[in-house]
């Protein structure tokens, strides 16, 4: 009598951050939507700074016309609706980043009496309940932005309050400080750091690209990269496997033998020698 070994059950998550709507990269967003429609992940995670909330920043910003803030919110709602249409049965999670926290901070500083009123929160403004999108805020009494994260298996995914100008330094410092594998938004670039502990555990630190345009009023020629991450994980034991997707020049990338571009999805051609080796 033979016993068939049960196949391992994995879930598939796609993690993207720092869209900074309405300053997102339109072509990168089109490519991202194409990927979602084709691959249908079990879980889409918007890992902070999905919205920019430009008008309510504490920083000096270039003024826009009075209706721009309302338009920014409508643009975000439209994109969220498109995600839900592409993924009607998938779990979608939006993690509060430091830019979303601008709304809470603005109310704390300028309208304390209105803080917490219905309609003046991100979930209410973006109709998240109707879209069945869960929102993960910083803790209820936070008066400033703090580390904000969820778990995807044994990978801690969040908008950690740490940046660095030196490569993957933020990911390295976070791994050393927190002692867990983690994925960081916030830095707008890609980087990875691995550490093997004395007991044989492998800890991974990831800086997870961004989805915003490099043309911003507050920085010139930034060292940012477009892209997102893919994670296969087992909910039962926490095991996970991570793959980065960098959106390269010409807005294209390769995944599972296919090239994704603004022209569509095409199977990549291989050399004759490579075909013979299959």
Topology diagram in text:
Blueprint: E1 11-16, H1 26-39, E2 43-47, H2 68-86, E3 91-95, H3 101-110, H4 122-125, H5 128-131, E4 133-136, E5 148-152, E6 155-159, H6 169-178, E7 181-184, E8 190-196, E9 202-208, E10 227-233, E11 240-246, E12 252-255, E13 258-261, E14 264-267, H7 272-277
Parallel strand pairs: 1-2, 2-3, 3-4, 6-7, 7-9
Antiparallel strand pairs: 1-10, 5-6, 8-9, 10-11, 12-13, 13-14
Task: Summarize this entry quickly.
By secondary structure, the protein is α/β, with parallel strands linked by helices. It has helices spanning 26-39, 68-86, 101-110, 122-125, 128-131, 169-178, 272-277; strands spanning 11-16, 43-47, 91-95, 133-136, 148-152, 155-159, 181-184, 190-196, 202-208, 227-233, 240-246, 252-255, 258-261, 264-267.
Structure description:
- The structure is a single chain.
- By secondary structure, the chain is an alpha/beta fold.
- The protein has one domain: 4-Layer Sandwich (Purple Acid Phosphatase, chain A, domain 2), CATH 3.60.21.
- Helix content is 24%, strand content 27%.
- It has helices at 26-39, 68-86, 101-110, 122-125, 128-131, 169-178, 272-277; strands at residues 11-16, 43-47, 91-95, 133-136, 148-152, 155-159, 181-184, 190-196, 202-208, 227-233, 240-246, 252-255, 258-261, 264-267.
- The strands form three sheets. The chain has a six-stranded mixed sheet.
- The longest helix has 19 residues, at 68-86.
- The chain starts with 10 loop residues before the first strand and ends with a helix.
- Mean pLDDT is 90; it is low at 1-5.
């Amino acid at each position: 009598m033979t016993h068939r070994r049960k196949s391992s059950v994995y879930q598939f998550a796609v993690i993207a951050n720092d869209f900074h709507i309405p300053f997102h990269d339109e072509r990168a967003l089109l490519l991202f939507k194409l990927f979602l429609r084709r691959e249908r992940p079990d879980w889409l995670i918007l890992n902070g700074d999905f919205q920019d909330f430009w008008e309510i920043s504490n920083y000096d910003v270039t003024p826009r016309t009075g209706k721009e803030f309302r338009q920014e919110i409508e643009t975000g709602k439209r994109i969220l609706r498109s995600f839900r249409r592409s993924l009607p049965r998938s779990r979608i999670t939006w993690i509060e980043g430091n830019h979303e926290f601008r709304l809470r901070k603005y109310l704390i500083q300028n309208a304390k009496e209105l803080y917490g009123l219905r309609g003046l929160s991100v979930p209410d403004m973006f109709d998240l309940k109707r879209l069945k999108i869960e929102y993960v805020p910083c803790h209820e009494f936070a008066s400033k932005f703090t580390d904000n994260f969820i778990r995807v298996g044994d990978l801690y995914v969040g908008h950690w309050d740490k940046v660095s100008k030196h490569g993957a330094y933020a990911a390295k410092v976070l791994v050393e400080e927190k002692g867990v594998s983690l994925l960081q938004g916030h830095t707008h670039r890609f980087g990875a750091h691995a550490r093997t502990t004395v007991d044989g555990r492998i800890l991974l630190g990831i800086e997870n690209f961004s989805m915003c345009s490099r043309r911003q009023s507050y920085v010139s020629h930034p060292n940012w990269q477009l892209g997102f991450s893919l994670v296969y994980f087992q909910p039962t034991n926490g095991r996970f496997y991570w793959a980065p997707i960098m959106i390269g020049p010409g807005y294209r990338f390769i995944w599972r033998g296919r090239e994704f571009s603004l022209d569509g999805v095409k199977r990549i051609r291989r050399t004759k020698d490579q075909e013979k080796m299959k």
